[in-house]
Amino acid sequence: MSQVNVLAVASEVFPLIKTGGLADVTGALPLALAAEGVRSVTMVPGYPTVLAALKGAEVVWRFPDLFGAPARLLRGKASGLEVLAVDAPHLFDRPGNPYAGPDGRDWPDNALRFAGLARAAADVARGCLPSFVPEIVHAHDWQAGLTSAFLHYGGERRPGTVMTIHNLAFQGSFPRDVLGPIGLPPNAWSIDGVEFHGSVSYLKAGLALSDRITTVSPTYAAEIRSAEGGMGFDGLLRARSRVLFGILNGIDDGIWNPATDPLIAANFDARRMVRRGINKQAVQDRFGLARSPDALLLGVVSRLSWQKGLDLLLDALGPILDLGVQLAVIGTGERALEEGFRAAAEANRGRVGCVIGYDEGLAHQLQAGVDALVVPSRFEPCGLTQLCALRYGAIPVVARVGGLADTIVDANEAAIGTGGGTGVQFAPGMLMSGIERTVALWRQPEVWSRLRRNAMRGDVSWRRPAAHYAALYRELIDARAR
Ligand code: ADP
Ligand code: GLC
Asked: Which residues form ligand 1's pocket by a CB distance below 6 Å?
């Protein structure tokens, strides 16, 4: 089987820069693809943390003017990944997160910043680096979406293009007058091009002009073709159904391994579950909860946003606590939700604890110590925290949407009767009944132990998904050669 060369393009890659699951995916997939005969080089913006992490970086290309000033392409390695960083200080050398300044407001020139990323990717795709000429360009989310547009409108010779949707809610929409400055021709302004409801949408560019579209779970791939889940793109996605695929995410099972994880209080595995109790107590201590081994300890690790449905959890808090449940939350995001959880912790000392912030180590500790992890999302393209929970023996309690529906086997009576089940699913809007069922299962220690064993035994690694991506790349290369 011949090697396939892929240029992955993304605005985040773990551990160099991360705000969410996108970074986990782009940081882990290339490593798993190597076993499939795929060499994947990842292009990311040269944010300060990215440049600081690159080892042995060399300048491999210079842009005389990348939307406002000269820029360079640096090639280096970091955390086992081959990285191409777009070193463009006028676009990326800024404080704050990848998209917004320290005040939380999107940078006003995001249209140019991510056009810069895509322009650089398109140049590499066209062969500007003789030592790395990809057969496939794989763009992730709207920030990379223009790559396919630059290739589509830029002449004949180009590699195959794949666009992955991690979240249809982020569409990269900008006013029409960015079209000239980003260097797309006037005919790109069309319903078959980058125009979307009177704006230029970078996501639309990727969806309309890439050879293949993937998203991160089969159920989400179906949901986004409906008016309800399509967020305006359902018509386009229905029209492109034949080239749209849902491939589930995995997690890096080296980083997420309870038997070796250096970030947790006590290592454990399915045969040494007693030691898990040490982690439960550590979480109770850290979150100011009563040290009670018998209380069902429920956890949340999440961005605090409307998507994640955590306002529904706050609304149901009274009845949940009446069941004797404890709650530990780590999250950051919308001010109202942060305040809501702070107030809930204040009002229910010893029973609710929260840490508002982003803390990778604490996320591991929480997964290792809580009995169950609740994910009440309104929509969820895939979701990774429920996969981490499975691996760490925290029973996922999830809304039956998107990738949550695909990754958790509901412990209903039929499943329990046959020794199956890995978690609890509830119909959207039925969080309270999901919690009640979870408490009922918790009160049957043998059933609970079996669920936990099932959860920990499953394969949530990148092995199978990487094989799917590799097959997709090869199919596309074959199709284009015909
Ligand atoms: P999304 O990408 O929509 O935020 P995912 O479940 O796909 O959701 O991925 C979230 C990732 O971010 C996971 O790796 C999770 O552990 C991590 N994460 C989310 N919130 C926090 C937090 N407050 N602190 C540490 N890690 C977090
Ligand atoms: C997005 C989605 C999440 C998914 C992640 C990685 O952030 O919200 O469901 O797991 O991307 O694909």
From this structure: 20-21, 24, 301-303, 330-332, 358-360, 363, 382-385
Provide DSSP, 59-100: EEEEES-SSSS-EEEEEEEETTEEEEEEE-HHHH--SSSSSB
- pTM for the whole structure: 0.97
Query: Domains along the chain?
Result: 4-250+463-481 (3.40.50.2000), 273-457 (3.40.50.2000)
Kindly state the DSSP code that residue 106 receives in the 8-state scheme.
Answer: B
Mean pLDDT of 7-31: 97
Q: What is the pLDDT of residue 61?
A: 98
Which ligand has an atom closest to residue 167 CA? 2
Q: Which ligand is nearest to the CA of 385?
A: 1
For the record, the structure tokens of 102 come out as 């320290």
pLDDT beyond 90 at 314: yes
**Mean pLDDT estimate for the chain:** 97
* pLDDT the model gives residue 157: 87
In a mutational test of the pocket of ligand 2, which residue from 25, 167, 375 has the highest number of ligand atoms less than 8 Å from its CB? 167
